[in-house]
Every structure is written in C-alpha cells, then in structure tokens.
Amino acid sequence: MAYEKSKAEGRYICVAHAIKTRELAEKLRRLYPDFTYPKNYSETQHDNKLNSEKLQKLGWTYWPLEETLIDSIESYREAGLLK
To answer: Do you know which InterPro entries this protein is assigned to (predicted)?
Structure first.
C-alpha cells in the first residue's frame, strides 16, 4: 500500500497487535484448549511504542487478533501442520 500511494513517504511500521507471549498463549488456550502450551515464559520489560498509525492514515486496516488467530490455526490444520 505504501508503495502504491503517492503521498506515502519514509518508513512504515506494520504492527496490528502488541501482545506479550503469555497473553497470546492464554488467548490461544481459550480458543484451542486441547493443544499443548508452555508452562513458563520469558518476557522482556520494555515499552512497546510501535504503532501503525502512519499506515492507517493511508487506509490500511487489520483484522481483530482473535479472528487472525483462528484463521491462522485453521489454515495450519488444513495444511497438515497441526492436528
């Protein structure tokens, strides 16, 4: 999109969801409780100030995280990567 828009310039960050590993695993566990998940997580302590505001001003939108996870997991299943 940034390549195709004439008003686009500079660098763009494409990040739809900032989430910690533990939070992601918990969300996946609620959606797919039969999978095996790690019990311990290492997290870094830094402020994640990345955002996609500049891309959104060009018209970029993203799907909700839960919908993205479900679509990804189902795609992996169809490809035979998950059972």
So the answer is: NAD(P)-bd_dom_sf (IPR036291)
Confidence band for 72, pLDDT divided at 50, 70 and 90:
very high
Cα(26)–Cα(41) distance, rounded to whole angstroms? 11
CA distance 77 to 68: 14
**Is 42 a residue whose pLDDT tops 80?**
yes
Domain that holds residue 1: 1-83
What domain count does the chain have? 1
Residue 48: pLDDT band by 50, 70, 90 thresholds?
Answer: low
**Integer Cα distance of 54 and 81 in angstroms:** 35
Contact in structure between 21 and 39 (CB atoms under 8 Å) = no
Q: Are residues 60 and 52 in contact, defined by beta-carbon separation less than 8 angstroms?
A: yes
